[in-house]
Amino acid sequence: MMNNSNIKQRNRLPIGDRVSVFLKVLTMVGMMGIIPAFLQGQEKPVRGQVRDSESTPLEGVTVQVKGTRTATATNANGNFSINASNGDILVFSLIGYQPRELTLQNQMVVNIQLTAESRSMEEVVVTALGIKKESKKLGYSAETVKRQDLLQNRTVNVMESLEGKVAGLDISPPAAGAGSSTKIRLRGQSAFAGAANSPLIVINGLPMDQGARSSNGWQPAYDLGDNMQQINPDDIESMTVLKGATAAAIYGSRAANGAIIITTKNGQRDQGIGIEYTSNFTVNSVLDFTDFQQEFGQGQGGQRPTDVGSAISTGMLGWGSRMDGEPIVNFDGVMRPYAPNPNRIKEFYRDGTVFTNTVALSGGSDKGNFRASFSNSGAKGITPAPDNRYTKRIFNLGLNHDLTKKLHFSFNANYTKENNENPPQVGAQGPGAPNFLTRMSTSIPLAAFRESAVAENGTERQTSGFQGTLLNPYFAKGREFILNDRDRFLGTATLRYDVMDWLYVQGRYNYDYSVSKLEFNTPTGRGTSTPFNNNGQGPGFNGMYHIEQAKGTEINTDFLVGASKEFGDFSIDLSVGGNIFKRDVGTFIDEVEDFTVRDLYSIQNGINKTINNYTIFRDQTNSLYAFAEFGYKGMLYVNLTGRQDWFSVLNPEANSEFYPSVSGSFIFSELMKEQSWLSYGKLRGSWAQVGSANGIPPFSNHLFYDILPNQLHGRTLGTILGTRSPNALLRPFSVEERELGLELRFFDSRLSFDIAAYEKVTTDQILPVQISNASGYTDTQQNVGSLQNRGMEFMLEVIPVKRDNFRWTSSFNASLNTTKVLSIAPGTDRFVAQRFEGNEFIGALVYEVGLPLNQLSANTYLRNENGEILLNDNGRLLQGPVVNFGSALPKWVGGWTNTFTYKNLSLSMHFDFKAGGKVLSSSALNGLRQGHTKASLIGRREGENGVVFDGVYRNGEKNTIAVNPQDFYTDYRNLQIADPFIFKSDFIKFRNIALTYNLSDYVKNKFGFIKGLTLTASCRNVALLYKDLPDYDPEAFASSGDNRVGYEQATVPTTRNYAFNLNIIF
Fold first, then answer.
1. Is residue 393 assigned to a domain?
2. Quick one: pLDDT at residue 116?
3. What is the DSSP letter of 223?
4. Which DSSP symbol is given to 194?
5. CB 163 within 8 A of CB 912
């Protein structure tokens, strides 16, 4: 048996990798040696606080000594510290507020109030390449995420906090707990392949893919997380969502689906040393949406089991007699009451917990600033068998330093170590707890499965007729494991030289290194009555052990030359740059079956090696780009960009692509200044053409060979890997997008409105196309498909109440997107992307020309010309043709947030919704045919002698024949009819509520050394207000991939999360 100590020992990385990671961290820590230099020259600090007219502390106010480069910014509590001399003039400025100047006259403490501007609605947005621009200059959609949205309702994966909060951003987290990935889509799904649909993530100038690692296979199916969970929300300074192709065009092929720009904190100049501590504790309580029938128990044909054999064969069936509490025999031979057990979900799962602590040290002088933080998260998942645990440690460092008056250096580094033990199986009918708990008869108590999981010979005791499918989770505890380790280092170094006040040169180096290790097993005796290989016919003990390790390095080296100049009423910004992107990935996989020594899971102990694979690939992209901005009188702006990419994965004779864009904005409110009701008005428009090579892996255009895992007569043999023919003519798919937007703000910005409309056409999609088997292959990849995305985004913000001590802000956003298939392959109008195959699967996910993407397709009822359902002469169903039931993709995504602020108390409530998609529920099929759902009660209640289905015979006469319910409902599976199992995937959720109390003024006056204290209590997943899918949360079955979208299977339940957060600043 595999014990915990062995599991933890196996969970460690190889010594070489640990040394490599340690040296990187040591190098990073060594950078902190320059920190003391920042602390020189703090002889006359001036401290203070900046508030607005309602006495609310203002964060991000720039405080600058006029005529110098000495500047700082206020923290979350409005506090600042800056070195200045008597007679100096301090300038206080913040976008949206009137600037103020104050001459120092021996003051050491300065408290100042800023007044909101009624007309200037300009805000600074972090755009591509980390360049900050005033929002009025942008001709495309870009939305800055509010930091409180990330901090008030914390999640282990920071992207989950944004559900329904950004127009056009669709967030779908699977119900897999801490360490899981999040599906991110901007403006819908614009490509067939799932990997090519996520936006680019840019952290401190370092571009990277989302990197979701969620299994789409049948079994096992585990969610192994993504790159976003390696970001600590406490370290985030700003997050900007660049929605359209124009917004992210300068990033080229990697940003065909937009980009999310994240900047982490670097501390503040002239701040002195500061310490910030944040602690968050979350309890995750399981939500059970199942509402199964509790009238009839285990059995079939209306009869309860009478012996152990019948108890085993009917363990998954609820077609027995009406439960009366009398003792009956169970699968283990023990007599137990024949009574319902309706709380099995909550009885099996436990409350999960997440405890996160972050400590940050920051400081600065007039020459620079720094911030270093360490975060530790420990999570206990809701799944006890096998025991799910997740830990994460993050070290983050950011610093800026003026080497000279013109030469500036910045450095950011992030090191993350993750350990995920036994993540729950998601969305699969394989050997997982969700499948078992929802398909075993309600009359069998959970204690029976727990107490009798192991047979006398040490194998899993058989509980049902589906011995290899419905597997007891209690047998897995202590025997079955899945261990996932990951170490990652991100580093960015930037050097900028200001040649003149209008001209600069910048160089940047980004380094991304990761190493991951995955191990899992099938223990001996799992799903079988014998521990021996091949039912005792072969040597050794049955079982499986799998291990894989991946190392990856991504290096980005870029340069940028920028110039900005004004000529009277005209302004011009010009930039020219280039980038070299190198990627090096190596993966090895070993898998063995059957073991010489029982319960020893290692490659050496395996008898049959089923996988022995080592893969290494390298690719490189060279790029040159330029962008220009032309302005007139601060109200008219035109932006042009162009980027040329050269790809190593393409044929050298045709490996280059060019991506242009143009955008413009017109601030027409500048011509209507006499209209007091209009605070701000802007019209924007853009066009861009970008592409993506993400669907083209290295070596896909050339033939290459692999080594067979097992030798033949002592010889190692080579083979051509796979059945797909290489294609030397592959090229990146292309995305052309147009956008038009309008921004309006009225009545001193008490009413704000933003609407955008866009059309995006994606051509040269890469799809597998079947070829003749005579070629030695079955298919090849070709540029054949095209899609069209059309949509609108709407944002509305209202301040209904704005008084001295009370403020109510209400914001609503919604987006409409439809993705239509324009073409597939020549001569092909329909393509099956994924068949939902297996023992109980029905239907498929298909692409069909002229219809919205991702159609759920399956057999329907056979109907006559009047639309009536036809039955055979025995009153039973007949199989109809295969039809499309609708797209699995939602059309509408949005949210509504209300925030009430009274003095230092803030209450925030958020609702979000999705609508317009369909879901095919395999659980509903299994629940009906096996007698578990309430729908299965029709035909066996008092006074009913069977199912008299509402249909007609072929002669047109109405059906009057009653059919045995078990036989009738089993026909749905046998005939693969899907109609009763198609539901809307719509939902409306009361997503979260948060109460925040800012005690900064009190503790500062009381203790002095404490600069800020904030307490927050919150609840996430407060209530599910509307859904159409019975028994399950329509979000729970989500996957980060696109191949199984809209297909529901047994899944881990969602949770309601109660959290308490403490933030204290010294």
1. yes
2. 67
3. B
4. G
5. yes
